[in-house]
Recover the amino acids of this structure.
DNA sequence: AGATTGCAATCTGCATACAGTTTACGCGCT
DNA sequence: AGCGCGTAAACTGTATGCAGATTGCAATCT
């Protein structure tokens, strides 16, 4: 499908028709979502329409549409005649999202083990092998990028568009909480090893093993991330 | 149709707080979603803002907001400077949604078998037993209502809010295609039997069996429904 | 006749204006 | 001093107007 390249060239995006409405509203949705998701704005913080309008130098109409969309995405809460507020992702809900992520990832791994084409398997393995270098260099940023790519390949490999959508959305919402995990000492190497188990299972077509490995991999990431989330909350 | 009477009812709806934003926009979202989902409007059909505004006797502003929300729900497709059109859920995507539904339902059943409280198990069993009567009476409408309730209990029983959200959304999008299955001869009784296997497994706390049973149950529904969808397409 | 370009009607995107609702502050009363 | 109540300010909900984009049609040219 079509979930690449976020912010840089709006015109280009529109031309390529990659993202549906490359309009002002879409830009605002992404900008505001970013602020929420990166912690620039805190849960409960009000998003009043006029301020946003002034800030983005547009009228209130597109702001309202953006807020409505953010509401549908679950990033802000709305009630009639009240300001939209940054959604309070409670720790309990966060936990449920990480758990869901484990389950979804396990499904993807299982289906990928069954359905990936030869080319896809090959590409996954190459991607994985290439990242070994990054582990040795302790290149956290680059490894994070690789990590995203690796998981995306897994999701695609399941050959199910709706599952891909769900897992991608969930992943996006968890992004801010997952971000810091690679700073934990030794996490890079462990992540690589965990990936290795998944890749091996998929190459063998062993869906049960792939599923199991993916599940625990994400569970480990979750634990690491929730620690971070709690830190952040203080 | 029923597009008068709004303004008089608005207060009441808002007061009951049953529905989040009981505003004009929300009512329109539901009304339009209904029309799409019940097949009154067909995929590809245009939803131009002015016509809708006239039809609902409002200005274009709330119509635009409603359309944006419907877009976020996946019920309509939107491109810049073009009318929103009723989303064409391709057969391939439909298939992926049904498959996802099976997987999600299997997860819910497994988690429910592990996590449901005694009260929840009891309520599920009661709900299920009560529906036997509807099967004998061949009360399709009532059974459909029961069916929804039954599955909702299952989803809640998993005790995971995010999974609940995903499964509910997916289910909502599949609703129009699932609707007709109970008209197939003997489907009611079969559905009851399948539910029975699930309930029994959950009461035993046998998560593997519950998961397996739920998976096949939904797979069967999917097959029945896709037949219907193909028919409808002609 | 068929194709192509230009124009007009139509429609969306956004801004602005207005109406209704909520919130907050201050004044008067107890 | 504390408690209400009323009023005004702030903000959301909706309508309307204008500018730019798109589409279909028609007239002209090949």
């Amino acid at each position: 499908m079509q979930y690449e390249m976020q912010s840089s060239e709006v015109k280009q995006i529109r031309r390529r028709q990659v993202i549906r409405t490359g309009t002002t509203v879409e830009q605002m949705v992404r900008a505001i979502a970013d602020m929420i998701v990166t912690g620039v704005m805190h849960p409960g913080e009000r998003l009043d329409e006029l301020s946003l309008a002034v800030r983005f130098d547009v009228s209130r109409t597109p702001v309202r549409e953006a807020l409505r969309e953010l509401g549908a995405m679950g990033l802000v809460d709305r009630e009639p005649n009240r300001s939209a507020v940054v959604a309070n992702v409670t720790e309990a809900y966060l936990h449920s999202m990480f758990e869901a992520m484990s389950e979804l990832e396990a499904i993807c791994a299982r289906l990928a083990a069954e359905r990936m084409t030869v080319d896809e398997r090959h590409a996954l393995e190459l991607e994985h092998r290439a990242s070994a270098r990054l582990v040795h260099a302790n290149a956290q940023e680059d490894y994070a990028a690789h990590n995203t790519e690796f998981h995306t390949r897994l999701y695609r490999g399941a050959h199910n568009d709706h599952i891909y959508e769900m897992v991608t959305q969930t992943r996006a919402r968890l992004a801010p909480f997952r971000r810091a995990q690679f700073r934990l000492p030794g996490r890079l190497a462990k992540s690589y090893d965990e990936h290795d188990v998944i890749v091996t299972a998929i190459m063998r077509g062993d869906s049960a093993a792939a599923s199991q490995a993916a599940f625990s991999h994400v569970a480990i990431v979750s634990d690491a991330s929730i620690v971070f989330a709690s830190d952040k909350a203080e």
